[in-house]
Design brief:
2 copies of one chain form a homodimer.
Chain A (H helix, E strand, L loop, with lengths): L5 H8 L3 H8 L7 H14 L5 H8 L4 E6 L6 H15 L3 E6 L4 H13 L4 E5 L5 H8 L4 E4 L8 E6 L1 H14 L5 E4 L7 H14 L5 E3 L5 H15 L6 E4 L2 H13 L9 E5 L3 H4 L6 E4 L2 H16 L8 E4 L2 E3 L8
Parallel strand pairs in A: 1-2, 1-3, 3-4, 4-5, 5-11, 6-7, 6-8, 8-9, 9-10
Antiparallel strand pairs in A: 10-12
Helix pairs in contact in A: 1-2, 1-3, 5-13, 8-9, 10-11
Chain A binds a DNA duplex through helix 2 and helix 4.
Chain lengths: ~325, ~325
DNA sequence: TCTACTTGTTGGAGCGCTCTAATCCTGTTC
DNA sequence: GAACAGGATTAGAGCGCTCCAACAAGTAGA
């Protein structure tokens, strides 16, 4: 497994190591004749540049570190798609990591990412404390996605959860609903703005808000609905705004188990527009975050800092949109 | 962003750079007194080692490169969990990449991974041609997950798809089904063994196999069922073995749209036991691959080669198991 | 007391590359 | 024919680290 180095390529092509370096970096000041010779030699030897040595010598790197909090949630995949597309356009690559939504492991993952000296770091829905983020931001440009921060050294990209649940409420009200319950995301990331957005929208329509404490899982959603059924008896709400899609799915199955039909008896709106919601079998009305766009903005923010074009923090708050499918109808 | 180096730590602690290096690598031959001084100095300066420089100097690395073919599919997340757990136990870390299930991008991703000179490489469900895999395997130990290979330089970890669909058929037969159709995965990875396993199991039970060409998506599953409904008219099969969970979900919704109830009128079995299948709303009977175990075995295979313990290829074929939920019943 | 180890520490070479400054070429101009 | 311009090429230092050989400073054995 002893791989050829620049020196080997140089020797074979009959030029200096420095010239090979120029060719590899695509420098314009190399004669066509030599360039061809070098590329041929590299090809014959099966040479591929050593990213580490390169970034060590140049004191810069051409990749962005991405920590995905949870690989199990496809929500992040599209954010990564956006990051990847933007990075790629600017000649950067992505190096991904995961912390499994647990602070100690995320810390390690972050340190590991940092040890590669990436040009910048994107944290997708991290759960580590702000202090860890601040420390990391001192080492490399850093952007947070789906997590807000007041740190002046970090950029953030979020969807406007407040507006998002407002859209859900507006939609239900326009269908004629007045008894609308919110099953919330508890302490989960972005659960708070979604909750306050729901409450504000209800007040705006002159309706009485009711929030049921829950979590971002289908099990929690089902549990919340069972509590609701018990508390309300036969006088059920006509609509539910769930914390996210998983929660909504759980809520729907609990309703169905109790003989309550969706959307005939009760309408349900999710949040996130995960691929799950799009499945025909589920066909969930939900709030969509422009994830690809969020990824792109995150990469862009990072690259601006990398290029030293900006030192002031930027706070992107993207406008979500409502995707109407089959789980909502007139009461 | 000028980060401290070993030299800085050494100066502050009043020792040589080499000693700092020993401390950082946890060498036992350092006096407690010096070790403490070095660690204190490192902490005060906020020093963290430079992974690149380290691996450049040592000509070894302590991380495994992982190319995930599709980040959108949570199927891989658990494989990564297994890889991660095993790697971590042996002092290795994971560096992840994605190729988006498209050969050209996967090629790039592979080259990029290789340029970091990882100790080994795991390819999860890659779509690149065998030649690209062979070339990569010449550069670093390589293991394939969910893809078979005849190359003597690569290890493979797969589930036994043949046995898997056999389990599905056995289950349906034991419930009393005899008219069982297979909606297959077309040219998708591992679709062939699942198909042949289905056919073999049907023959074993003295039943006539019927395969409908399809793909690994819910849309394709729905389409296949609509074709089936058209072709069979009122004489429907009593059970369906789908190519995977997505396909099964699509099939179920197409059945329901046509007024065919699952499992009352027709039973459906999926494959992969994705988190989707476990959702109460879906509750799909499906074939489970021991994914965590597969990830662990992949990491183990890699580490054996890294340590030079083995040069002959290993072929893991794991036994899947059936998870019975609510989409199957007696005909 | 001398030698042989052991334990802890250090200088220096070198990993594969980049980057600066210097050098080598042409060809052009006076 | 000398002087020069400007592009193509190269030597050499150095990025932050590891690793080896060498070296003090004890400790034990003869």
């Amino acid at each position: 497994m002893d791989r050829p180095t620049m020196e080997d390529v140089a020797a074979r092509a009959g030029v200096s190591r420095a010239l090979v370096s120029l060719v590899m970096r695509g420098s314009p000041k190399v004669s066509e004749h030599r360039r061809a010779a070098v590329l041929r030699a590299a090809d014959e030897l099966g040479y591929s540049p050593h990213a580490m040595a390169r970034s060590l010598a140049s004191r810069t790197s051409h990749f962005l570190g991405v920590m995905v909090s949870d690989l199990h949630n496809a929500f992040w995949a599209e954010i990564v798609d956006g990051l990847d597309a933007c990075a790629r356009e600017h000649g950067f690559e992505l190096v991904i990591n995961t912390g499994g939504r647990r602070a100690p492991r995320e810390r390690q993952a972050l340190a590991s990412l940092l040890s590669f000296r990436p040009a910048g770091i994107a944290l997708l829905g991290p759960v580590v404390p702000a202090s860890a983020i601040e420390a990391a931001a001192a080492q490399a440009p850093l952007v947070l996605v789906s997590r807000s921060s007041r740190l002046s050294t970090v950029d953030t990209v979020n969807d406007d959860g407040q507006t998002g649940s407002g859209l859900a409420v507006d939609h239900l009200v326009s269908l004629g609903h007045t008894d609308i319950v919110h099953i919330d995301g508890g302490g989960g990331s972005q659960a708070a703005p979604r909750r306050t957005g729901y409450v504000a929208a209800m007040r705006r329509h002159g309706l009485r808000p009711q929030v049921i404490r829950s979590e971002y899982t289908d099990v929690a959603g089902a549990k919340a609905v069972r509590e609701l059924l018990e508390a309300r008896g036969s006088h059920l709400p006509t609509a539910v705004v769930a914390a996210n899609d998983f929660n909504a799915i759980g809520a729907i199955s609990a309703f169905e188990e109790a003989g309550v039909r969706v959307p005939a008896d009760v309408s349900v709106v999710g949040y996130d527009n995960t691929s799950l919601a799009a499945l025909r079998h589920v066909s969930l009305t939900t709030v969509d975050q422009p994830r690809i766009e969020m990824g792109r903005l995150a990469a862009e923010a990072l690259l601006q800092r990398v290029r030293g074009e900006r030192t002031t923090p930027v706070r992107h708050l993207l406008r979500p949109s409502l995707i109407v499918r089959s789980t909502t109808a007139a009461p």
